[in-house]
């Protein structure tokens, strides 16, 4: 078993550079299916979710070439297969983007239901509603979602989202890009990765307007051609390191970010007594004094991101006073709370609300990452805690954080990857 061992209680000093955004990459890579030509994608994060989605494209017949550590060339021109392999697709939530992309390109798709973190119910009814209203027949049989456009090509229409959904908004954008006529998405999600997907598609020849607002208009085009595109920096990775500095103390320059995307996180940290200084493409985060309580409610962008909820809760465990966290997106995103309690945190959860009584100190413990962001939050509590913590199930964390051990070690954290004797006798220092 591989785990992280963290000796906590050391403030963090130095610089961390942020990688490309996971939730943009896992949509833009499937979007290359729409392109007739080579797409050079830069600033790709090296995380297991990206490896999986690239493997799925290769399995479908795409030519994927690594140019350097963060750049790949993807050529999907010669693909003729619209059936996605079950084993790979079930491991990743973003495999649902293959439905929209394959439907757009071939007029049909066979994709297994998506996997991903267990955050309570994760329906895709809004995605399906969109495809059906554009003229697709969609049904589930034999463990696969089968979608087929009547007449072989989807037709543009107006799709009203009953719920603001990141995935459904991007999936319908993909489906509409090569459809006949105009598609209007109303009550669309506005996250930075939605704008990034639209920018990618437009740079390849699509006609998409309004991404980043709640009405997106997509006029279908006949074909997209190849080109070059660089993925935006990861808002949540940056926010996670900001929270780590807030909890552990110290001063860290977080580089390669778009400060505007971090404003919702910055605002909460400032309320808690953390100094955040915005630069052009960096934020300087400094925490020397005590942390103070605040309330946080997660909402779709530009609200406070649900993907930062466990990490901000980790910081609030050490803030003076009582804080209330309200989860406004997912049904069950407090599965980490029992692990925090083992470190001495005082948290009560009732449905979507967590009440946190700040404590003077947390103490190291053995922890189990239950999902990606919960795992990241456990690293934060462990960095701030007195003594040693061990975090197992780290494959969840590696799905979404590139080189987290190296990046934290670079700012003075005492964190190592340890492979326990049941697999290997040696202890490896991560790098
Ligand atoms: N929902 C429906 N029906 C749908 C789609 C969504 O009821 O058809 C509900 C969901 O159950 C949820 C809410 O709408 O309550 C929002 O879900 P959304 O569709 O926005 O989430 P998602 O697209 O499945 C993406 C990210 C998540 C992130 C959410 C919200 C990817 C691959 N995943 O999921 O990221 O929490 O948006 O911002 O982009 C993570 O990175 O850790 C992660 C879980």
Count of structural domains: 2
Mean pLDDT value? 94
Helix content: 25-40%
* Main sheet characteristics: 4 strands, mixed
The beta-strand count equals 23
Number of helices: 14
CATH superfamily of the largest domain: Enolpyruvate transferase domain
Which CATH top level class of the largest domain fits? Alpha Beta
**Secondary-structure arrangement, i.e. CATH architecture of the largest domain:** Alpha-beta prism
* Shape label: globular
- Which class best fits the helix and strand makeup? alpha+beta
Q: Low-confidence stretches at least 5 residues in length (pLDDT < 50)?
A: 424-431
Question: What is the beta-strand fraction?
Answer: 25-35%
Describe the 3D structure.
The longest helix has 14 residues, at 235-248. 30% of the residues lie in helices and 27% in strands. It is globular. A four-stranded mixed beta sheet has the order 21-22-1-23. The chain has two domains: 2-19 and 233-425, UDP-n-acetylglucosamine1-carboxyvinyl-transferase, Chain (Alpha-beta prism); 22-230, UDP-n-acetylglucosamine1-carboxyvinyl-transferase, Chain. α1 runs parallel beside α7, α4 (97-106) packs parallel to α6 (166-177) and α10 runs parallel beside α12 (372-384). By secondary structure, it is α+β, with helices and mostly antiparallel strands. The structure holds uridine-diphosphate-2(N-acetylglucosaminyl) butyric acid. Residues 23, 26, 93-94, 117, 121-127, 163, 165-168, 189, 306-307, 329-330, 372-373, 400 line the site of uridine-diphosphate-2(N-acetylglucosaminyl) butyric acid (EPU).
